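RECORD TYPE: inverse folding
INPUT: structure tokens
STRUCTURE:
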């Protein structure tokens, strides 16, 4: 008998008491979900205490989020002034006869712990599991399981809670471990759940193929030629079966896959990797736009028809020798590993005025897309070939467990740099045409500071 009594003692029979694993899988397939995430609930996981999901938003990179909003902590549980970040999510509860949205559902991120909790998930939904999640009913029952997954086409999260007495809960318990982390499995049981091993095998296959013509995989599933600077990544993704969609979901199973150019496969740790390219949301840049920025702070070329704003800016306490702007990290303490709700990364001029800036909320929105599992694959290209050819090395980096706090610490130490490639050119009609490219980058040899686990793996030796 489970702790908490038997089913007869509960007094409120539910459809979630009888549901099987097979039924759960079929239901999620019907809602267009390809993989499900399983969270084994503790007694205090209910509507009163919120539900702990993860230690960082990057562990929930598959979930579509609304705009992340900062606020200061006010409850007795939190230290005074500690920031909290709220992000609405398109959560829909599955019921016995259909589904209905939970309009108040949101993720709440407490970076000082750190932890991410699910909040507001019962209000306003006809199919919400009120009995199983209410502390005054069965919301403290042992063995309950929260199951959810994303329909990436509709950008909706579908979820349900099964009773600890259900055959489904007992069947899914084979995935339970002591870490408390969410477990991700494919909806179709015949697909292997070992995404790490599957990825290594696929990368070994692609390495063995040698030089590959540049290509990309559109939504139609039919590969087509690729042209442009991003073809190294697109070609690798195409051969992994990853379509061009720009969705935040992981590329391969739980893994984000990124290629990086190297001159030698014997030295895969050399080079620089672009982490993300967010546009500023603070300062004069955000108010006046990219063309104003580059023509005000950029450098005009000898041809007099182009401005460029480039250069590796890092947090050093001094202005950049070429641009005259200083990169600052405001609202983060490296000593206490603490951040403020209104913190930001910014470029300031000699008067201390904020020329361009990225709020922590904006950066956190982008960091959420940095998946907790990442594979970095070295690549080489033959740029003089038509079409361009790429090949991929056998020594890859597999990294696990990242947090936004690690990003801020890497910024404070100068490991992450702001390395823009912004330009504006005078076209034939006499108009300036800007191109924005705000890049945050890190040397490959410094990548390990962003992860809890960091290993180089030879895909030919697994």
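DESIGNED SEQUENCE:
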């Amino acid at each position: 008998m489970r702790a908490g009594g038997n089913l007869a003692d509960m007094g409120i029979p539910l459809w979630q008491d009888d549901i099987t694993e097979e039924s759960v899988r079929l239901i999620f397939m019907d809602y267009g979900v390809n993989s499900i995430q399983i969270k084994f609930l503790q007694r205090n996981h209910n509507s009163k205490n919120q539900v702990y999901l993860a230690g960082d938003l990057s562990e929930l990179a598959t979930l579509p989020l609304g705009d992340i909003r900062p606020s200061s902590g006010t409850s007795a549980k939190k230290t005074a002034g500690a920031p909290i970040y709220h992000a609405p999510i398109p959560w829909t509860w599955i019921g016995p006869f259909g589904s209905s949205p939970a309009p108040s559902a949101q993720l709440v991120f407490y970076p000082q712990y750190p932890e991410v909790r699910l909040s507001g998930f019962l209000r306003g939904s006809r199919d919400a599991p009120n009995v199983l999640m209410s502390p005054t009913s069965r919301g403290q029952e042992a063995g309950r399981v929260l199951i959810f997954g994303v329909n990436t086409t509709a950008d909706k999260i579908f979820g349900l809670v099964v009773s600890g007495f259900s055959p489904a809960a007992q069947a899914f318990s084979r995935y339970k471990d002591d870490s408390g982390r969410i477990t991700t499995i494919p909806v179709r049981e015949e697909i292997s759940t070992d995404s790490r091993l599957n990825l290594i095998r696929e990368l070994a296959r692609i390495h063995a193929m040698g030089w590959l013509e540049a290509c990309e995989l559109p939504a139609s599933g039919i590969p087509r030629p690729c042209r442009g600077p991003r073809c190294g990544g697109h070609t690798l993704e195409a051969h992994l079966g990853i379509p061009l969609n720009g969705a935040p979901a992981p590329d391969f199973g739980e893994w984000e896959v990124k290629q990086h150019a190297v001159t030698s496969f014997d030295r895969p740790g050399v080079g620089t990797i672009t982490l993300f390219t967010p546009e500023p949301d603070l300062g004069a840049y955000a108010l006046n736009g990219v063309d104003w920025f580059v023509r005000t702070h950029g450098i005009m070329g000898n041809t007099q028809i182009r401005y460029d704003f480039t250069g590796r800016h890092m947090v050093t306490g001094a202005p950049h020798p070429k641009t005259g702007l200083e990169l600052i990290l405001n609202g983060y303490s490296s000593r206490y590993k603490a951040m403020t709700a209104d913190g930001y990364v910014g470029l300031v001029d000699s008067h201390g005025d904020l020329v361009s800036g990225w709020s922590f909320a904006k950066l956190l929105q982008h960091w959420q897309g940095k998946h907790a599992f990442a594979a970095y694959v070295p690549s080489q290209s033959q740029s003089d070939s038509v079409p361009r050819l790429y090949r991929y090395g056998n020594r890859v980096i597999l990294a696990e467990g990242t947090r936004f706090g690690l990003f801020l610490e890497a910024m404070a130490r100068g490991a992450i740099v702001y390395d823009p490639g912004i330009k504006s050119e005078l076209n034939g009609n006499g108009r300036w045409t800007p191109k924005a490219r705000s890049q945050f980058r890190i040397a490959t040899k410094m990548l390990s500071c962003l992860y809890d686990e960091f290993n180089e793996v030879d895909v030919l030796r697994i």
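NOTES: The radius of gyration is 24 Å.
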